[in-house]
Amino acid sequence: MEQNNKKTATTHSIGIYLWIWGLLFVFSTFSYLVDWYNFQGLLRWSLIIFFMLIKAGLIMSIFMHLYWERWAMVNVLLWPMTAIMVFVGIMTAESQYTFFTRALFFVTGG
Amino acid sequence: MSELDISKLPKGGKGFVHDFAADQTTFKGVPWGKAMMWIFLLSDTFIFSCFLISLMTARASTTAEWPYPSEVFGLTAFGVEVPLLLIAIMTFVLITSSGTMALAVKYGYERNRKMCAWLILATAIGGLTFVGMQAFEWSKLIFHDGIRPWGNPFGAAQFGSFFFMITGFHGTHVSIGVIFLFIFARKTFRGDFDVGRRGHFTSMKSDYKAIEILGLYWHFVDLVWVFIFAFFYLW
User: Fold this and answer.
1) Residue B121's CB: how many other CB atoms inside 10 A?
2) Considering its fold, how many domains does chain B have in total?
């Protein structure tokens, strides 16, 4: 096991890290440009999320070596994230309801 | 854990079933410290998710105007109003420190002690720079712009509490990481991981795998910043 760990760890050349590093710079610049050019609405949200997910994916898969881990590890780490997405969905509905009741209160005065 | 050759085990989906059906460890070829760090990071993910989901809920449910981060965090450089200038620089500094950390892990596994130690030191200095810029950002917002957890001149009163809570919690993570990076830089320079010298707190022997585990934490800090940058500063 010791041998194997060392072998898999040393097979990555320095090039891949420098590439990912460069790509992270590029995508960070892109997401900054979204604000610089003051995109609004759906275009802004979709671009922000798109660049965010690409950066997160690169960091997790290459820098954190998740790409080279066995599936047992990868699945244990990634499946719980779906619970977060469910929570986002629940709280979106909840916040819209709260906004509705507040708006109603301000219009009717209680 | 003596003679297990994980390259001979089934891979992919079959490997997943094989590993979970095993009568021994589930995470084959993974040092226990690394598995524990991953599980800690998973729990930390949930904490940060709760903060960001609360931010979403507060922002979507308030009838008051939410302050526009692009203007709140804008700086004037050379007479020009630049939006999110400091935040952009902080992002690049943190990504750079993440890159040096990835290289430190690589040189650690290649037993290149000096290179590994210098890169950890560079990572620590990058993290320190980040915390320093965050301190500058906070002091500007508190003393110059008058942002408080209970209110601010820009709009919705909740803005301040979310800002201080989210960036403060992240900054705490960075600060703890910087402390450990300096400790590990010293340990690496001294050759602790080559000779298996026992740790001061743990009194356990350690090797270069410890640097990968520290690296996981540091990359996670960078990962969280990616989400904070997107959801708090850009959205």
Assistant:
1) 19
2) 2
B13 with B53, same domain: the answer is no
Complex prediction ipTM: 0.90
- pLDDT, tens digit, for every residue of B23-60? 888 898 899 999 999 999 999 999 999 999 999 999 99
Q: Is B9 left (phi over 0), alpha (psi -120 to 50) or beta?
A: beta
Cα B215 to chain center, whole Å?
Answer: 9
Shared domain for B157 and B192, answered yes or no, is yes
Nearest residue, CB atoms, A92 vs list B49, B60, B92: B60
For the entire predicted model, the pTM comes to 0.92
- Pick the residue of B27, B28, B82, B109 with the most A CBs within 10 A to test the interface with A by mutation: B109
Q: Which of B61, B70, B71, B222 to mutate to test the interface with A (most CBs of A within 10 A)?
A: B61
Residues B17 and B55 in one domain: no
Q: Name residue B17's beta-bridge partners.
A: none
* Owning domain of residue B12: 1-30
- Domain with residue B164: its CATH number is 1.20.120.80
